[in-house]
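User: Here's a chain of 365 residues. Predict its fold as tokens.
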Amino acid sequence: MTVLTSAPPAASTTALTSGRLPKWAPWALLGVSFVVSAAVFGVAAAGSDTPLADFNIAGTVIVGILLYMVIITVISSIAESRRKAVDRLMTALVATAFLIALLPLISLLWTVVANGIERFDAEFFSYSMRNVVGDGGGIVHAIWGTVLITLTATIISVPVGLMTSIYLVEYGRGRIAKAITFFVDVMTGIPSIVAGLFIYAVFALLIRPGISMGFMGALALAVLMTPVVVRGSEELLRIVPNELREASYALGVPKWLTILKVVLPTSIAGIMTSVMLAISRVIGETAPLLLTAGFTQSLNTNIFDGQMMTLPVFAYNQYMNQGTNPDAAVERAWAAALTLILIVMVLNLLARLIAKLFAPKVNGR
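Assistant: Prediction complete.
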């Protein structure tokens, strides 16, 4: 009587995985490559006064990736096959292209955090620069100015831009719609200084030359924000399926209510993203605010009276007018830049939360 037995699972698994690197091997080699590269650049930066700020993160990433590609290709060609080694090399090249695209962002964030974290203290966020010419001081007046001016610009531009996009998608036909689209595209590309000069010229004619106030800065930013909101919202409204509109019309719902209850809720997540892109586009502007909002060393929360300081203008002013202690001024400038980045990040997270809350529910979720 013949008894048939199958091979042990361990032997089968060994046969299937023979001639192949373990799954953890590429990640381990990548980690070793980065450790070696970081050690080399860390030794090079150790002799400076500020080793954290002088550490070359871009060079570390590039050298680490190049070292990894050499190591993984050699080891794969020995342990696996030439074809598999070429496949791993191409995978590393694609990943490298992705990292190269991220390098400017990573390097920028690293530089801002490394230089700006030194002044992140209670004094910096609770005092203004009034009567400060050397050490100390803070940015509470610039934070208030940035928030108030950007909020006012958003309140002005979002309704105008959203209603314009609704007109172009739902109602606009013929030459008028084409003309509006053309001028919106032109406004998208205008330099920011032109918007500041326009608002300054209007207020100089209506009130008096040389006037500066926060509301003027908000209007200048609104001019820059509006075309971004229009173009982003228009594209998002166009991708809403027509079947949803037709189903609403078939139930006897008027067009304006269909737009309000069907079209806008369907695209609210994308619209919030376009609004955040518009805010991110203008919150870091300096030139138009120098002309319209001016700058001051004191706290001013009235956008209709007197000059107001904003974070971009504060950073520029600290770098250009360094006072009696240049090092302290440069530290304040970097800290203001880091604060601006954090504000943009918080606004993006808030926009995602709002979009999630108001997005249409699927299967009751």
